[in-house]
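In line with agreed milestones, the collection of sequences with tokenised folds has grown. One record among many is set out beneath this paragraph:
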Amino acid sequence: MYAVIRAGGKQHKVAKGDVIEVERVKNSGENLEFTPLLVVDDKGKARSAKSDLTKARVLAKVVGEAKGAKIEVRKYRNKTGYRRHTGHRQRYTTIQISDIKLSGGTAKNKEGSSDGT
């Protein structure tokens, strides 16, 4: 099973156990919770945000924080004395996806109980 989440203005395809880097999360406590945009279960059934994802959650644990590579911007115009130099270094939070839950429990538990009835 995998889910598509939105973090830091970008979308990430995640599954249980994945370790990804997202843009820095200011409230970087021990655990994070994301609302998925799309969930595809083990049987290949896709659930979009318009259907039954109002109670779905993706749980993640913060592993650490890091800085990205330095990006340098230089501007120069010939014969005018115009020179500018600036830079940027993005901060990232490394997270590990611990579970993908649909409206009650995990998707495997929900699917198993619905197949039995």
